[in-house]
Every structure is written in structure tokens, then in C-alpha cells.
Amino acid sequence: MGIMRLFSSLISIVKGFSRLSLCRNRNYHWDVPKGHLAVYVGEEKKRRFVVPISYLEQPLFQNLLHESEEEFGFDHPMGGLTLTCQEDVFNKLTSILHSL
């Protein structure tokens, strides 16, 4: 599968998930700026982060999405995209992605 095709698939999944999440979650946060998405990170207590959608085309972030898909599927208990990652590791990852 080509990288553009994978990126297109990820964008479609996120858009579909966003619509589904909006319908299912009455506590939807309206503070996510255009071009960003909210994710929940942490092992026990989930913390909400808002990240640019440009991260979706980065291989490091894509690996994290694939791991999360394997663990949670598309049924996310937080009502948003939940990532399988420790908070400190996620902070390091986003720091790396921000510097690219």
C-alpha cells in the first residue's frame, strides 16, 4: 500500500470517527482548532492532547495508531481516539514530530 493511499485511509478513518464521536459523545470538546484532532493518552488516567493532523502522515505516529487499533479497535472508551502510550513517551514523540 502506497504512503499516499495509507494517508488517505487514515484521514477517512479520522473523519468518520470524528462524526461518529460527535454523535455519540455529548461532552464533545469544541476547543479543537481546525487542522487538529484530540487524542487521549496514558495508562490509567487518560490525558487529552490536541495534535495537528499533519502527524497522521508521520511514520512514528502511524505506528502508534496501528498499535492502538490492535488494542482498542475502533471502539474507544473515552469517546475519542485513545492511544496506547505512556504520557511521557507521547510527549517525547510529539516533541520529535514538532521538530521535523
What does this entry look like structurally?
The chain has helices at 3-24, 59-72, 87-99, and strands at residues 36-41, 47-52, 81-83. With 100 residues, it is α+β, with helices and mostly antiparallel strands. The protein has a 3-stranded mixed sheet with strand order 2-1-3. A hairpin with a 5-residue loop joins strand 1 (36-41) and strand 2 (47-52). The protein is globular. The chain starts with a helix and ends with a helix. The model has no long low-confidence stretch (mean pLDDT 78).
Q: Concise description?
A:
This protein is α+β, with helices and mostly antiparallel strands and 100 residues long.
Main attributes of the structure:
3-stranded mixed beta sheet, alpha+beta, 49% helix, 100 residues
Oligomer state equals single chain
Distance between the termini: 24 Å
Task: Report the strand count.
Answer: 3
State which percent range the strand residues make up.
Answer: 15-25%
Q: Report the sheet with the most strands, covering strand number, pairing sense and barrel closure.
A: 3 strands, mixed
- Helix and strand pattern: HEEHEH
What's the structural blueprint in terms of helices and strands?
Layout: H1 3-24, E1 36-41, E2 47-52, H2 59-72, E3 81-83, H3 87-99
